[in-house]
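hey m, so remember when u said the tokens were messed up on ur end? i reran from scratch. heres the input so u can diff it against urs
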Amino acid sequence: MPLRLIFMGTPDFSVPTLLELVAHGHEIVAVYTRAPKPGGRRGLQLQPTPVEEAARKLGIPVLTPKTLKTQEALDEFSALDADAAVVVAYGMILPQAILDAPRLGCYNLHASLLPRWRGAAPINRAIMAGDAESGVMVMKMDVGLDTGDVAMAERLAITDNMTALDLHDRLSRLGADLMVRAMAALDRGGLQLRKQSEDGVTYAAKIDKAEARIDWTKSAHAVLRHVHGLSPFPGAWAELENARVKILRCELAKGSGEPGAVLDDQLTIACGEGAIRIIELQREGKGRMQAADFLRGVPVKAGARFN
């Protein structure tokens, strides 16, 4: 039998899970998401979240409460009489009363191999730290920060050519399939839970724009992972001839020199150890472009410097 579910999510990452749950016959009685924010060309038009847009197309009722901590919010949530809630990057804390309301509990899809990278930015942090793998996990939620008992997991290798967006998209699709399988097991009464390990706990703090400047004294591999972990947003950057340039994709390259020095006419940049070659970048106030296109308009010769 299909489950009666509340879905709670906000960004693009959440949408595949919502779509897959609907496709597999579950009844989504309501979608909770964050309220629309001003956007558009002039910043005056309210922009619904990607999850709200998807829910509206599916004809599912959408709720955008500012808080879940009031009795009114609890009453509204409880009145939906859901078997369970599925939470995917919702962006709001669920108090204990909300967690206790669905008959079978609330289940979160988290984009890391818990207990590593609990918190807000697990995809970025895994790449920036040089991790060899990431993954998605379904856990039964408690009031802690990603501390709930884990039900199911899928792993995915992180390669050096993966950006945060690449990993985001792959984990989003992998997570949608995992949550569908978890809800099927929950419906059968066969979803098994295990406590998270006390060892290996790390926290994925929200990305601060102050972290984005590239430190060329680090190794080429560390620079590459820093660049890819912040691509496309906020974008790791350096200055070339007093103009800010975001580097969005790069590769390891042969060569050595003073950190930040341009080694050839193909945007190979020396690091503290080794070098990277820029593949894709974005000049301040411009769109993203391939390095070859950039060089046709702005020739950068050996001896120039990224600061």
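this time it looks ok to me. The radius of gyration is 22 Å. if urs says something different then somethings off w ur setup not the seq
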